[in-house]
Write a structure and sequence with these properties.
By secondary structure, the chain is of the alpha/beta class. The chain is 34% helix and 31% strand. Strand 2 and strand 3 (39-42) form a beta hairpin. It starts with a strand and ends in a 6-residue tail after the last helix.
Length: 235
C-alpha cells in the first residue's frame, strides 16, 4: 500500500464521536458522496479514508489491509489470533466504553467467582451428562480468559442474536457479552461474576503491525500521530 489507509466506523454514535475527535486535533473529516458514501477525506492529510463496520476495521488492522483505524478494543482482542501482539493501540479515545463480562443466572446463589463456575460445571456435567454451554460472540476472548482462570468444564455456543437472552431461552447456561450499565443483564435475570470482567473496552485509534508503510505513507502517518500526540487529553 503506497497511500496511507485509515478506517473509521461507518455509522452511529461511534462514527460521530470519531469525527468529533478528528476535528478536535485539527483534521476534520468530510464524507464523500454524502451520508451514504463509504469513503471520506481528512483535511490536511493525503490518505485513503474508508468507512467500515467496527468489526471490519479490527479485521483489516489485524490482517494488515489498513494502516490505522478507530474501533473497539473488544473486537481487536477477540479477532487477533495472537492477542495484543497483533495490533498497536496508539490512543484510547475515551468514548465507546463497555465491559466484556461473564454473566450467570441470578438464581445461581453459590456461583459468584470464576472458580465457582468451574465447580458448578463439574457438578452440572455429573448431573446432566453435558458441559455448561457458554453463549458468546467473543470466542477467542472467552477461551483465553477461561483458560487463565482454569475453567474447563464448558463448551462454547456462538451467539448470532441477543446473547443476554440465551439462558432464559434455554440455548445456553452462561454468557460472555458486552455491557455498559448492566441493566440489560439484570433485566434478563443475570449477574456478572465478581472476577468476571474480561476486558474494559473503549474505542481506540490503532495501528496495524502487519501493514507496510512506504515513505509517503510514513510521512502522512507521522503528521496524523503528531497531531494528537501534542495533546495529553482524550477527546
Amino acid at each position: 500500500m503506497s497511500r496511507l489507509t485509515i478506517a473509521i466506523p461507518s455509522k452511529g454514535r461511534l462514527k460521530e464521536q470519531t469525527e468529533a475527535w478528528l476535528a478536535s486535533i485539527g483534521h476534520p473529516l468530510r464524507q464523500i458522496g454524502g451520508e451514504r458514501g463509504y469513503t471520506a477525506e481528512i483535511d490536511g492529510l493525503d490518505a485513503e479514508v474508508r468507512l467500515l463496520s467496527a468489526r471490519e476495521i479490527a479485521q483489516g488492522l489485524i490482517e494488515g489491509s489498513l494502516h490505522f483505524g478507530v474501533t473497539g478494543e473488544d473486537l481487536l482482542h477477540d479477532l487477533a489470533p495472537d492477542g495484543p501482539e497483533d495490533f498497536r493501540v496508539l490512543r484510547r479515545l475515551g468514548f465507546g466504553g463497555a465491559d466484556v463480562v461473564v454473566a450467570v443466572p441470578q438464581a445461581w446463589f453459590d456461583v459468584d467467582m470464576m472458580s465457582d463456575l468451574e465447580a458448578a460445571g463439574a457438578a452440572f456435567r455429573k448431573s446432566h451428562g453435558r458441559r455448561l454451554r457458554v453463549a458468546t460472540k467473543y470466542l477467542r476472548l472467552t477461551r483465553r480468559y477461561f483458560a487463565q482462570k482454569s475453567v474447563g468444564e464448558y463448551r462454547l455456543v456462538e451467539s448470532a442474536g441477543a446473547t443476554e437472552a440465551a439462558p432464559s431461552t434455554g440455548s445456553a447456561d452462561v454468557i460472555v457479552d458486552i455491557t455498559t450499565t448492566g441493566a440489560t443483564l439484570k433485566a434478563n435475570g443475570l449477574k456478572v461474576l465478581r472476577d468476571g470482567v474480561i476486558l474494559q473496552s473503549e474505542a481506540a485509534f490503532t495501528q496495524s503491525v502487519r501493514a507496510s508503510f512506504t515513505g509517503e505513507a510514513r510521512a502522512v502517518a507521522d503528521t496524523l500521530v503528531g497531531a494528537f500526540s501534542k495533546s495529553d487529553h482524550k477527546f
